[in-house]
Amino acid sequence: MTTAPADDTRWLTDEEQRIWRAYMHAVTLLEDHLDRQLQRDAGMPHVYYGLLVQLAEAPQRRLRMTELAMRAKITRSRLSHAVARLEKNGWVRREDCPSDKRGQLAVLTEQGYAVLSDTAPGHVAAVRQALFDRLTPEQQKSLGEIMSIIAEGLQPSEAGADLPWLR
Amino acid sequence: MTTAPADDTRWLTDEEQRIWRAYMHAVTLLEDHLDRQLQRDAGMPHVYYGLLVQLAEAPQRRLRMTELAMRAKITRSRLSHAVARLEKNGWVRREDCPSDKRGQLAVLTEQGYAVLSDTAPGHVAAVRQALFDRLTPEQQKSLGEIMSIIAEGLQPSEAGADLPWLR
Fold first, then answer.
1. DSSP result, A40-93
2. B16 to chain A, closest Cα gap in Å
3. Do residue B130 and residue A151 have CB atoms under 8 angstroms apart?
4. Banded model confidence at residue B160, pLDDT cuts 50, 70, 90
5. A55, A92 in Cβ contact below 8 A?
6. Which residues are in the HTH marR-type domain (chains A, B) (predicted)?
7. Which B residues, 63 through 92, put their C-beta within 8 Å of a C-beta on chain A?
8. What end-to-end distance do the CA atoms of chain B give, in Å?
9. Burial, A109: exposed, middle or buried (Cβ in 10 Å; 0-12, 13-18, 19+)?
10. Domains in chain A: ranges and CATH
C-alpha cells in the first residue's frame, strides 16, 4: 500500500509573494514602457535596440551571430528573426565569417548607426526617468548586486547548460 | 545663424551601465528560464500561468477581462490572444458579464484549476531556485522595495496615463 506523497513544496510566504509580484509588475511595466518609447521614436522594439547597441560597441561594428545571441541572452532563432527585420530596415547587414565558413557576421550599417545615435538620447532619458531617478544611490548599488547574482545563477558554466543562445 | 544644440543628454555612467545591463541580463534570463520550465511541464508560457493564478485567486474564479488585463499589466489585445489560447486548451472559458452587456468575464475551468495545481510546485521551485534561494533576507527586502518603486512610478494615477490595459 502506498500513501499519497506529502506536499513538500516550499510555497512562497506572503512576504515572498509580495516581492515576487513587485518584481513581475516592475519588469512587465518597464519593458512595455521602453518598447513603447522605442516603437514611437524609431519603430523598433527594445530587443532590437539592444542588438544595435551591441554591434555599435564591437570592433568594426560587427559580431558573429552566435556571439551576438550570447551577449543579448536570446536564442539563435529569435536573433535570426530580429536580424532579418533589421536587415530589411537597412540597419544591419549579414556577411560570411572569413575565419569560419559556417559562421555569419552581423554588421551595423551607417544607417543603423545613425538611427541608434538619433534614438539613444530618448531611450536613456526613459531609463533614467523610470529607474535611476527614482532610486537612491544605495538602492541602485543594491539593484546591481542583486541582478548580477540572479543573472550569474542562471548562466551555469558547465557544459550542457540550458542557455538560450546554445539551443 | 543657429548653433548646433549642445548635447544635454545625461548619458549613463559606467556604474549605471553595469547596473542596467545586470538588470537586463537577469530579467531576460529569468523570463526565459520560467518560460522554459512552464512550456516543458505544462505547455504554456509564463504569462499564461500568471493569468491562471489571477483567476484562481479571484472570487468564484472569474474576473472581468479589463480587470484581468490590469492585474497582469498587459494590453487588452495581448490578453484576448492569451485567453483565446487558454480557452482552446479548455482551461478558461468566457462568459458575458451579467452587470455590463459589453463586458466579458474570463472564468477558470475545473480543468484549468487542475493544470494550475499540477504545475504550481515546479514553478515555485524554479522561482525559489533562481531568485529567493540566492538572495539574503536583506537583499530580498531591498528587491521588493526597489521593484515597488519602479512599478509605482510606471503606473501614474492621473487620467490619460499610457497604461497597457487602457490601450
1. HHHS--HHHHHHHHHHHHSGGGEEEHHHHHHHHT--HHHHHHHHHHHHHTTSEE
2. 8
3. no
4. confident
5. yes
6. 16-152
7. 72-75
8. 43
9. middle
10. 23-149 (1.10.10.10)
Size of interface A-B (CB pairs under 8 A): 165
pLDDT (tens digit, 9 = 90+) per residue, A136-156?
999 999 999 999 999 999 998
Q: Which of B127, B153, B157 lies closest to B53 in space, CA to CA?
A: B127
Cell output for A34: 521602453
Name chain B contacts of A145, Cβ cutoff 8 Å: 139
Backbone angles phi, psi at A62, to 5 degrees: -145, 150
Summarize pLDDT for A104-131 with one digit per residue, the tens. Answer: 999 999 999 999 999 999 999 999 999 9
CA B101 remoteness from chain centre? 28
pTM over 0.90: yes
Identify the pLDDT of residue B162: 85
**Residue indicated by cell numbers 535611476:** A132
- Grid cell for residue B17: 551601465
Selected residue of B13, B32, B35, B76 to mutate for chain A interface (largest A Cβ count, 10 A): B32
Torsion of CA B131, B134, B136, B142, to 10 degrees: -30
pLDDT reading at B32 higher than 70? yes
The contacts of residue A74 (CB under 8 Å, 6+ apart) are: A47, A82, A164, A165, B28, B32
Task: Give the ipTM of the model, two decimals please.
Answer: 0.92
Give long-range contacts, CB 8 A cutoff, 24+ apart: B3-8.
Answer: B7/A121
The answer to whether A147 contacts B25, with C-beta atoms less than 8 Å apart, is yes
- What grid cell was written down for B91? 482551461
